[in-house]
Each structure stands twice: as C-alpha cells, then as structure tokens.
Amino acid sequence: MKRAKRLFAAVLCALCLIPLAGCHGSRGYEPFVMPETLDSSRSFEISFWAKNDTNKTQTEIYQKAIDDFEALYPNIHVNVRFYTDYGKIYNDVITNIPTGTTPNVCITYPDHIATYLMAPLCVVPLDEVMDDARFGLGGSELRFDSPTREEIVPQFLSECAIGGVTYALPFMRSTEACYVNRTMLEKLGYELPDILTWDFVWEVSEAAMAKDADGLFLANGQKVLIPFIYKSTDNMMIQMLRQKNAPYSDEEGDVLIFNEETRTILRTVAEHAKTRAFSTFKISSYPANFLNAGQCLFAIDSTAGATWMGSEAPLLDISADKVVQFETAVRPVPQFDPEHPQMISQGPSVCVFNKRDPQEVLAAWLFTQYLLTNEVQIAYSGTEGYLPVTTKAHESAEYRDYLARAGEDEAHYDVKIEASKLLLENTANTFTTPVFNGSTSLRNAAGQLIEETAKSVRRGDRTDEEYFDKLFHSVTSLYRLNQRIVSSERSELGPLPAAAKALLVTLGAVWLGIAVYVGRDLLKEKRKKR
Amino acid sequence: MKKFLALLLAVMMVLSLAACGKAAEKDIFAKGEGVMTHEQFIAAEEGSRVTVEAFVQGHQSWWDNKITVYAQDKDGGYFFYDMACSEADAAKLVPGTKIKVTGDKGVWAGQIEVMDATFEFEDGSWVAPALDIAKLLGTPELESHMTEFVSVSGAKIADKGNGAAFFYNWDGSGADGDDLYFDIEINGGTYTFVVRRYLTAPGSEVYEAVKNLKVGDTVDIEGFLYWYEGPQPHISSITVK
Question: In terms of CATH architecture, what is B38-125?
Fold first, then answer.
C-alpha cells in the first residue's frame, strides 16, 4: 500500500514537471550578459543555419568562412546546415523554439524575427553586445579585423531593429532590378531611359504583343513571348504602393493595404495580364529563363539573381541552344515618379539565439561578427549582385578593384556588377516595410492579390469592383489579417486568461499537496525509527 | 419440382452473368459530361479553366491541405500541382484511383499542369504500364508523353562532375535530404533524372539507392516524365544491374 502511495506521489511530481519542462525551452532563458572572457578551457559546438541561392560557390564561401573562423578560435566548432529557402528556415526555427533546439546563429529576415520574439528572450538583443569594448564590433579582444558599428551602413543596420532594439546584423543586401532585353526594345522602336516608368513598361509590353500572320511574335519571331515578368509579386505591390505614397501597414501592425490605390494597381495588372503582356514567376516560371531565350523584354528579379540574367549569364537553367544573343541592360524597378525613385531593400540578416550558457552565446556572437569581415563580405557579395553591408568593405581596394573589372571574365560578369552598383548608387532610395508579428503574412497577401488577379483574368473571370471586394475578403481570411496583432515582446500582454489562472492555481495546489503528503510520510517514518 | 428449381437456378445464373458482362463493358476511360479529352486539354489555352478525368499514378507528400499528383489516362499524362486535398482524401489517392479534376491549365517551365485545382473521386481504377522511352529520349516526340509513367533500361550512370554519380541539388549546393540529380547515358545522349524528395523521401529505397550509385553503373529506371525546360523525370524506382 505504501509503495502504491509513493508511486502515486512520484507520478504526480512527474506530471507537474511535464508542463514546466515544456515551457522551459522558450521561456527558461536569462537575459544574455556578456562574459568577461571566452573560456578557452572549453569547447563549443555552434549550429549555423544558412541560406544559399542554390549556388555552390556560396556554400563554398560559407565553408571557407567557417574554416577560417575555426582556425582563429580552435575551441569553437561551427556546424552549418544549408537551406535554399528563407521560408523553410523560418518554419524550422518556429518548430524548434518550443523545444529549445533553435540554432545558435541563423540567416533570417527581420519579419521572421518579429515572430521569433513571441518567445521572450529567445533572440539576443544586440545593441549592448555590439557596443561591448572587448567582444563587440571592433572590440579589443577579437582575433579578427571586425568592422566597427559605424562601419555598417546605417540604413542596413536600422532595418534589423524591431521596436527600437537591434535583433540582427545585416549580412548581405540586394534590391530588385529590371533586366531589359535592350536589343528587342530598340527593335520595337523605343529608346531605353535611365529610369523606367510604369507607363513606359506597360506601353512597350503591349506593343511587343503584335504577331504576324503565322501567329509568331514580330518582336522575336517566336511562338512564345511574355514581355513583362515579375518574380516577386509581393515586392511589386509593396513598391508600387510606396511609390504612390499609399498605405500598406504601420509600425503598430495595422493592415492598411486594402485601399483604393491597391484596387487601381490591380486593375492595371488585370488589364495587362488579360492580354498576356504581363505574367509572374508563379504562373510562368523564372523570368531569367524567358529573358535568356529571347522571350521576355522586362524581367524583374532580385539583384541577387543577376548571374542568371543575360545571353552570357554564368548560370543557365535552359539548354544552351535556346539562348538568344542580345544586349542586357540593368535598370531600377519601374517608378511612378522617376525624379524620386524608390526601391525595396532586402537580403539576408543574421541573428543570434539565446542559450542557457552565456559562453555558448558569446561563441555564436563571435562567429556572427566574423561574417561581417571584409574577407567574407567581399567574397560572398561577388557570388551574385549583392552589396556588402559595411562601408569598410565598400571602401576597400579589393572591392573597388572588383567593381572596376566589370565584364573582364565570368567572375566579373558585367550584369552582376551592374546590379551591385545599382544598389550602391541607390542606397538612399531604398526602403523597408514595418516589421511586426504578422508582417510576413501581410507580405504574402500583397503578392497574392496580384497573383489571383492575374490568374482570374487569364481564366476569363470578370474583375469588377465586386470581384475586388471578394478578393480582399478572401485574402484577409486566408492570411488571417483580421486577427489582432501584437507588435513585439515589449507589448502589454494584458491580464492572464481565467483558464491560465486556474491552471496555475491547480498546479500550485498539487505541489502543496505533494509537499504535505511527502512531509507527513517522512515524519511517520522518523517516528517509527524512534 | 427439382427440375423447376434447376431451371430457375440456371436462368438466374445466365442473367447474372449477363449483368456482369454489361458491367465489364463499361468503359472506364469514357469521359463524363463536361470533361475534356487529353487532346482537348493539351489544346486548351494556358490559364483557362479545365476539367479532366484521370487515374492517379503517384503523388508527392501531402502538406497544408495540398497535394501534387502525377496522373494519366490512356491518351496521356496530367500533372495536378498543389491540388486542394484533405489529409484523409490524400490517403485514398493510391495508384489507379480515378479522379475528376477542375482547375486552371498552366505551363510552368515547360511542364503542362493544372493548378489551383479541386477534385472528386470517381469509380474505376487503372494503373498505367511503364512506357519505355529509351528510344524517344532526345527526340521531339518525347514531349507528347509528358508526365506519363515511363521506364529506361540499361542506362549507364554518367559522371555528374568531379567523379560524382549524383549531386544534392542541381549543382551540388545541397546536402543530404535535398533532391538528388544524376545523369544517365543512353543511345549516345546524356539526360538528367531527379529524385524528388517530396515524391521519394530521404530514407526511401529509391533515395538511398541513388546515394549509393557509382559512375558506370548500369541501371533500370522507372518514373514520371516531368518537364523542367526539357525532360527531367522524377524517378520512382531504380535497379542497379
């Protein structure tokens, strides 16, 4: 009987520990405090979840960075896991937060961090860490030449702040570019302006749709031509709204996208999707493949996709016999006001996850910082039309030499370097959208509005005001945009729900019961022994 | 009385046989009302609404109430991309299952497909025999068999680069768990085949078999004739000879 009672008590204890253990992963951390020194008597295993653009050179550069870092810090070992999709990293991090098995360092977007922050203390705030005199940016105890805080492009660093707190370091930056088949454009009788306007792009795209008696497009002599293809329609909508100074969202997480300007943009999309002058990646595939086959006039994609663009592109997804020779021009995305161009700033950032052991976090921070050294920044930016995020790299002789050698060989592919220069010259014209828990959904919704509109007109559906009412409603519902959004971990969460209070009271009562029971049992045994 | 009973039983047997015969005569390939033939589907304008009937031959893993299906009727293949599907219905999409699908016709990187589709189950079952495409590889005729269940026998595994028999991802930028790309040599040509992780997951017989391939191995392969800017079959089985 006594055994049974003891067993019962043990089971009760175990049951109480289960929910506590469950909470532990995401909530059991202390705020990170920088240690005095890095403990050289211990070894540290750091996990790094990285993203590459399905580009082997990028994985090689990451690996070299790890090897070089480990040579400097022999007691830190970095295990890298590669992804080719930001969304998958995000999903895996979200899955691992409740179990406390997040990576130490992770390539990410600030939008994603806003969601990670729903688990308090999960991501390390970096402001004090960056400023630490010993291990901060440019710190005295570092074994490598780190940039100072002032040497990170301020605009790029500010993009990593949520609610005024910096939660990441920028790693690489890109924007979108319009890759133009200049040869075809001039054949159509147009001159290419330095800054494209939306009106110009739509007009030329429609002009390119003319066919001969055999149904071949006059512009390219082929059966296939999609004059204007946009890769990321979320960016398309966001940039068009921004250029029109129309609402999208605000810092509080209010969703403002469902407005008259959005309808106007969608009407234009419908008009040109109907004639098939315009299409998207989701509908038709990669803009680069159509561009290189002479089947696209304006291909809008990231500057980080520049090595795929053009007749001489180092990376090809179509067979060589399908590639058409033409001159590729690189321009900013089309504008409504060419005097005041505006374009999105995007690209990977890197965040550090909190752990129980401050030494482990310090090791992760050192590696994170190492990714901003000139060696890594210049090498990685050269794999695509990326821009290094530090002025230290921009101003280095090595990077200047790289830019100056445009067109010299494959490593200096001119379209890629033009794409990098585009961002370098337009950094002041870039913007980002407000970051909050839910901003990823809103971004997806922005693209979905364009995709759905284009698909609807292609299948012959009417796109009148009633259609847009329904579209707004379905997209709101699909992306749960009507739910209340909490902007960050600092927000007032309000009183505990009644159910939570009841659970806590019950747990307390159970613990008290166990204590009384075990205490009484011990007392009885003591008395017996006497 | 006995004679009458015997006669009655004989008549009933004949009647039931006749009924069976009628049922057997039902053409499972006949298209229902409003359903396109394969020829009409191929001719339909890109982006237009289409309704087709086909028999499931394989599918990728179900996720988020969506499933991607390789299907076929006697006239050709169909690729239903990210079709709306509950997890319970996904379990019923075994090879042979007949479904009626409505969605938008799309062409993505050359692959003809139906996207944003919904479906319903229909009576009938048919598993397509594998079409030997060894002689069709490199010919314009191959495209007319897009998405069909196909086979190649006696192909040699080619060097993918640096002596590797396969790559993780198209260029070797991936890691274990990613799609596997390998090249085969047959009839003087070289062609890329893919182990799509959503069709044959890491740990599956196919995935592990390809990881163990060596350059020069002779193999028999079966799979679906997927298209990505050209033929790039998603394989479902591989045997090293």
Answer: Beta Barrel (2.40)
